[in-house]
# Entry
Amino acid sequence: MEHYSFLRELADSWALLGMFAFFTAIVIWALRPGSTTVHDDIANIPFRHDDRPAPFSADKPAE
# Structure
């Protein structure tokens, strides 16, 4: 039972701390100052070909 208690204590403390550090790093990486142009470009993907929509065929089912 000692092995289970050790693993449970490890998961309760260090694993939680590791997951929190990973989450914090991802948020900081996503909100870094240099990523604004990348996020703006990705946000405008649906509007890139606004003058020419994708072709549609009524007899061909959508995939």
Residues 30 and 36 are 9 Å apart (CA to CA).
